[in-house]
Design goal:
By secondary structure, this protein is mainly alpha-helical. The protein has one domain. Helix content is 78%, strand content 0%. It contains six helices and no strands. Helix 1 runs antiparallel to helix 2, helix 1 runs antiparallel to helix 6 and helix 4 runs antiparallel to helix 6.
């Protein structure tokens, strides 16, 4: 009886934290969608310029690459929080809820560890770009504002993994 109340308390606490973070994650996902739309507009404008004005935008490929990376890293925390990404659930789906929970926790810990490891690798890379004011080759676009999305995304994705593990759903479903 006491274990059940303790689990319910952890899940309720996890849900409160998730309710606090979800609006920020959703705002980032909206920015990701806008960045995806900007890719389409930019490529369309560049193709139009190429065929009608015979002068495509010279910075299209660089900016599209930056926008694509931004789209992925802006959407990742919400996809992780809602467990909306690709997952292999063959083993977990076959187990009853109580037995699946440890696997969900283990998966969350592995996901969070990866995100924190990636975060640790991103920070020196970002500092290097910031210190040297690195820009893209053709468009001369500053790199560090774009690169700052990676550590932010990884920190928030690690938090999302930990919330998923603490929610007690065994990793089977995401809370919407």
């Amino acid at each position: 009886m006491g274990d059940r109340r303790k689990e319910d308390g952890r899940a309720a606490h996890s849900n409160r934290i998730e309710d606090l973070l979800a609006p920020a994650f959703a705002a980032m996902a909206v920015l990701a969608a806008l960045a995806g739309g900007a890719i389409v507009v930019l490529i369309g404008a560049s193709v139009t310029m190429r065929y009608f004005a015979f002068a495509p935008f010279r910075f299209t490929e660089e900016l599209v690459g930056l926008l694509m990376t931004a789209t992925f890293f802006l959407a990742l925390p919400l996809a992780t929080l809602r467990a909306g990404h690709v997952r292999v659930l063959v083993l977990v789906s076959a187990l009853p809820g109580k037995k699946a929970r440890p696997f969900g926790i283990l998966a969350a810990l592995f996901g969070a560890a990866f995100c924190l490891w990636f975060l640790a690798l991103c920070i020196p890379w970002l500092e290097f770009a910031f210190d040297r004011n690195i820009k893209t080759e053709v468009g001369r676009i500053l790199m560090y504002p774009w690169m700052a999305l990676l550590p932010l995304s990884m920190a928030l994705s690690a938090a999302a993994f930990l919330l998923r593990g603490a929610s007690g759903d065994g990793g089977k479903t995401g809370r919407s």
